[in-house]
Amino acid sequence: MESNTDQTINQPTLRADAANGQALVMLEGIPASPGIAVGTVHLLAPVGSAEAEERRIQEFEIEIEVERFHAAVGTADSALAQIEAMAREQVHDRAEIFEALRMMLHDPTLHSSICAAIRAHRQTASGAIRMEMTKLAAQFSASSNSTIRSRAEDVHSLQEHLIAALGSTPTAHPLHSGAILAARALSPGDTVLHARGGVGALLLEAGGINSHAAILARAFGLPMVVGIRDLFAQLQPGFGVIVDGYVGRVIINPDQATLQQYQMRNESLQAQRQRYRQIRDLPAETRDAERVTLAANLDLMEEIEGALENGAEEIGLMRTEYLAMHRVAQIGVEEQATAYRQIAERAYPMTVTFRLFDIGSDKLLGNAWSGDSSPLGLRGMRLLLAHQEILYRQLEALLRASEMKNIRVMLPMVGSIEEIRGVKRMVAEIKHQLRIQRVPFDEYLPIGGMIETPAAALIAETLASECAFLSIGTNDLAQYTLAVDRAQESVAAWYDEFHPAVLQLIRTSILAAHRVGVPITLCGEMAGNPLATGLLIGLGLRRFSVAPAQLGPLKLRVRSLSAAEARAWARAALRMPDPGQVRAYLASCMDGGDSEVELE
Questions:
Q1: How many domains does one find in the chain?
Q2: Does the pLDDT at position 282 exceed 90?
Q3: Is residue 280 part of a domain?
Q4: Where on the phi/psi map is residue 221: left (φ > 0), alpha (ψ -120 to 50), or beta?
Q5: What confidence score (pLDDT) does residue 371 get?
Q6: Are 423 and 457 contained in the same domain?
């Protein structure tokens, strides 16, 4: 399905109260799917919002309610299967989102908890479903990991399907073509139904950019803005709005001048997209023939197609946390191996770099993973080595999936050479067992480490001597270097990836990798920052890994640069005493074409 950015903006008939000279009313949210759309608002009450039947059942009703629950699982599964089939007609690989939902639907742990609530608390099936799934969603929502947080929406989605299957609420129906749909939340199934019905854009009070609804919106080319506070209090049915999915903005009842402004902006964005398409299959090469590799950062298997469409040469960071859900301590080898194998097969012949579980010390992942909430506590390899049975299973699964020889394994937040050696000893032991079992695998499976702390950067040469590759995670590197927790508003202003100390550590890491002769990639947000491209190339970086949507703009910037000039920029930037001066200098160095790229 074509994105709205490739279409002419259709101007709706605005309400009469879009007053002449009246100040524009704008709502701000999180941009979850790019594009611009104009249409009239339709407010959607949440699916499953009717109150679940909450009464204490009698003893003879207990098994009746248990059977009602099991029957609802079957009904919900059939409904999801039908939606999956519809999704495959238009968004192909993204339809596997529904396979994941159906797997969660049949999770025996979930079934046990709901049946136990019916039996122990004498609850109806609908009441037990709501209670247990609300608990599970709350556990996900409490995570500091955005991928884990987004799974809360999957739980809500399943709850809605199950309640609907019990007959408590009607299912939603697609809206008229061009409507701007506003909802508190949206299940993946309803996202598909409304997309096929031709809605113009989606606005949500809840949600995140990694939610399945957002992934599907991007696949369908639907502009989407999420996290809009008090959405229902500020919109009324029939309002005319402009939805800007690039910046996360909704303009209510715009005047004609604003509509014309967005029409012009849409045309400019179409021209940019055409430029990206024209260079997609060209090499990422500077004007003076320095070759750069561009890879993609992914959270979910469903995003591989988008990476390919945007010209990714590799998957530079494949996060594995999405597999963990609420049961990382229980997830088995074969289930993991199947998922990793599917990803490797779909991406082939591209290399896929799987990062081991990087959950942090969140408590939602079972008792075996409980820990303190401090960012200086159990994280990365510390956590994995503290729970070696989980590490062992994940490494075995990756080895079992490595037969096609396009898998690499990356260790998160490495702090010492002994951590790498410990993992390599474990891998050697697993290989020995797989040989005995005659299981095929990649004998030379590359193992690398992430540089995310000052300690790792300062011993990067030592780490490189034990690694097949290195990757710099600038998000955490900047956070730990500057002693700033980005999640805390009181200190977030002190976070700056252009701080001289951060730049020196990046340079140290790159030079160390070059001396040892191992490839090094930068995969943090800085890799996609337009201001940073020339600086990083000047520092010697030749491998970038970014979100799929950033690949086109990044390649355009790389092809506009001279590596020789970039080296001069880097030398000058490294001598500057504060990040503000660095930013101003780099902005002055950028040519005029880069300002267009920043629109996206």
A1: 4
A2: yes
A3: no
A4: left
A5: 43
A6: no
